Amino acid sequence: MTERSSAARDRLGIRIDPPYLHGAFLALNAVSDAYFLGDGPDCIRAKAEQIHGRHDLFSTLLSCKGEHRVHYTGVDVFKVAGNIEDQIVSGLERIAARPRCAAIFMGSIPMCTIVGTDYDRILREVFPGSSKPAFLIPPQTGLSGDWLDGYAAVLQALALGMDLSGSKPKPGKVALVGHFMGRNEGDHKGNVRELTRMLAGLGLDPVSIWLSGGSYASLREARHAETVISLPHGRRAGKTLAERLKAGLIEAEAPFGLSASKRFIEQVGKGCGKQDQAAAFIESELSSLSPRLAWLGKEGFKGRRFAFAGDPHFSLGLAEMIEEQGGRMFGMILTGMPRHLTESAQAALTARPNTAFAPLQHEVEKVWFRLSRKDADLLVGSTMTVEFIRPDIPWLEFGYPSDYTHFLKDEPFLGFRGALGFLSRLANAAARGFDNRRGVKPPRGC
Question: pTM to 2 decimals?
């Protein structure tokens, strides 16, 4: 056996990151009147079940009345080689006729993609002259695409194909592209309101946020923006939209944590020529929040060790929050590939101990399985990672999926107010388990 084939064999296993279509459905879930037709078997709808009513209590992807927003052709291994174009056409026409349908997305699973069906042509023929906004979600590259690729692909499809006619850029109007709208609950709805508040503090009007849980029509309001602000979950889409609108482009970081929120405001302020407003806003926010943070450094975080397993786009912000308050990181399992981050961000993460990008389960079992008090005091992670690790220490659920933690009112984790709230959650979770030497087990069934 060659060295190359031996290495390939050693990399076989179950990777710790959600699949491509999960990310695409999270994006679809965040556009209230968008529908989807997938070329493939009924497992397509099963992926929507991972979000609807489980991760997101307010999801509308599925319906007890049968008015689902996710549909599939039903193609399986026995039919995949046949010609089913008529079936695809009738499915698209049936979905488009639904009163609530404002836009249609189409995609396929790898088994169907390799057949070579020209979905783009079918969409043009079914909806001539863009009679109904229709978008093709690019297929994942082989089996390498992950959930972050899927989410970004939906935004890029919108940026490339959306009708932007009637665009009228107006001073002070901005479009925020790449906001990760993970669900329609109070944590992410709260993020939208906090981002809106912060931009308003600079005298800016976010005419459209991609994505925010709103309608397709609300996304088209981006055509009136003079500046596009892109966030990490939608970098390509932000650049594409700015180019089509001939608008300014600001590539900002996700405002997760106080320092990251400060940098976000500085980046936007500089890009929009509002440095003075940015400085004044930051000073006002920090002067209000600083007195409330005194306890965190003394009792909440000092000397405590934290582990993180989740979205790589939020990993540096989390580590920074903890380390600024006197805590330290035990390690990080990042549920996404390194390509999603800049080289400098990758280097900053891998410089920390026990950090791995989308590792295979067997590669981290020795260090992470049954994580104990000798290693860390609190694990912050998604349901999927907590169920894999089965920690013997307290844990705080955060990220996708979050099946056991839900928010019925606004409780953001982004921005200045979000940082204060998230730091409170972290400190309380760590304090509750600090003297419990037996730790806290995951829920039954994990």
Answer: 0.93
